[in-house]
Structure formats: C-alpha cells, structure tokens
Amino acid sequence: MSLRHPWRRETALLLVAAGLAIWLLLQPGLIQGLPFTLRLPAVLLGIWALGAAFLRPLAPAFPHPLLCRALSPHWSQLALALFALLMVLRALLA
Q1: What is the C-alpha to C-alpha distance for residues 43 and 40, in angstroms, rounded to an integer?
Q2: C-alpha 49 chain-centroid distance
Q3: Radius of gyration over alpha carbons of the chain, in Å?
Q4: How far apart are CA 82 and CA 69, in angstroms?
Q5: Does residue 65 sit in helix, strand or coil?
Q6: b/e for 9-42, b at 16 or more Cβ within 10 A?
C-alpha cells in the first residue's frame, strides 16, 4: 500500500489513532499501571498524539500558528509513533 497520496496517509493515521484509542478504552491498565512520574508524561503524550491525529484533517481551518505547528505532519506523526511504541512496549512487558 503506497502512502503517496495525502488522503491515504491521513486515513492511515486516523485508523492508527482510533485503534490506539479503542485499545486504551478496553485496557486502561496500560496507563494506570505506570507510576505517577511516568503516567503524567504518557497521558500528555497520548493527548497530543491522538488529538493531533484526529484534528489534522481540520488543520487548515485553524488560524492560530502555534496550533498549526503542533499539528504539523512531522511532529504529530512522531508523537503518534512514540505513543504507539510506548503502549506496545507496555503491553509486552506487563
């Protein structure tokens, strides 16, 4: 599957974000089992990663430049990849 078309990339990111969100709804212990010093950064990263993935299609409608920077493809994809890696590692080690 080629991700050369922007809508395919956005669709793939939305599906990954939706899958992670559903997984966390079904297994909240992945986050709850962390100590507080690790839980807070994980929650903040998850909010940014999932929120950015769901808001990316709406990014051109936002006039605020700071919000557009946080939703930029490079940062939002990196945040989503880090959060997915964190959850997979947490599931494997738990």
Answers
A1: 5
A2: 3
A3: 14
A4: 18
A5: helix
A6: eeeebeebbeebeeebeeeeebbeebeeeeeeeb
Examine the pLDDT at 61 and tell me if it is beyond 90. no
CB 50 within 8 A of CB 17: yes
Each residue's pLDDT tens digit, 25-60: 999 998 998 899 999 999 999 998 888 888 777 666
Question: For the chain, how far is it from start to end, CA to CA, in angstroms?
Answer: 32
The encoded tokens of residue 75 equal 């940062």
Tell me the average pLDDT across 8-29: 88
Task: Please say whether the beta carbons of 3 and 67 come within 8 A.
Answer: no
Most distant CA atoms of the chain, gap in Å: 42
Tokens at 13, concatenated: 């990111």
- For residues 16 and 80, the answer to whether their CB atoms sit within 8 Å is yes
Q: What are phi and psi of 84, to 5 degrees?
A: -65, -40
